Amino acid sequence: MVDGHYLEVGRLLYPALFDSPKQSATRDTLSRIWSLELQWFTPEESMSIIGHLCSTGWLIDNADMISPAYGFVLSRPPLGWRPLPNSILSVPELVLEEQLVEKQPSEPNPIQRSPEPKISDPERNNLPLDRAEGSIPSLIEIISTSSGLQNKEVLRRAQRKRRALGPVTLWMALALVAREQGLDMNGVVSAIDLKSD
Fold first, then answer.
1. In a domain, 73, yes or no
2. 93-108 pLDDT, tens digit each
3. Does some domain include residue 116?
4. What is the largest CA-CA distance in the chain?
5. Were 195 and a residue from 16, 27, 135, 138 both cysteine, which residue would form a disulfide, CB within 3.0 to 4.6 Å?
6. Are residues 134 and 168 in the same domain?
7. CATH of the domain at 36
């Protein structure tokens, strides 16, 4: 197996599957994340990539839920990383080393996870201190009201961005969600400034 392909597919799957229940999602969910949320591919390209990764063993399709192959470890993409459709569509069949594919029938998928910090934890496991933390509830409400998304969905998207981007504050991730939704950023920045003095 070519190491570059392993790393590339790991980075591709990380934002979409790392925080999903049992690291699995439907084809439509994967396509939506890659094409609408991350804007990496068109919906058609996303479906072609899912089909290719399933046919080459990188993804397993089980009862309409897609998950990584057993023993395949997802990799956090670096800031600014973006996959190329042709490169992903040319990855060869997945071959894992012998020791990785030996598993017990009842073992869960061994994707390495770091514990998710609680939003209210000021230490946040080496994440920077969020000086504008007081603006977070009102910022979530502004984004939810203006975009039509539920508060829970706004927060879920912001948390996904934090996991994908690394050490960014929650309010910055929320600002990125607001920008994706086409909201007036002057109003968003004002809401943050009012609370961060």
1. yes
2. 887 654 344 444 444 4
3. no
4. 57
5. 135
6. yes
7. 1.10.10
What is the structure's pLDDT at 98? 43
CA distance 192 to 98: 52
Residue 86 to residue 152: CA distance in whole angstroms: 35
Residue 178 covered by a domain: yes
What range defines the domain where residue 45 resides?
A: 3-101
Helix (H) or strand (E) holding 55: helix 43-55
Residue written as tokens 């969910």?
A: 29
Average pLDDT over residues 112-137: 50
Query: Where do we find the tokens 């094409």?
Result: 35
Please, are residues 41 and 49 in contact by the beta-carbon 8 Å criterion? yes
Q: What are phi and psi of 132, to 5 degrees?
A: -100, 25
The C-alpha atoms of residue 69 and residue 67 are separated, in whole angstroms, by 7
Main-chain dihedrals φ then ψ at residue 67, nearest 5 degrees: -145, 160
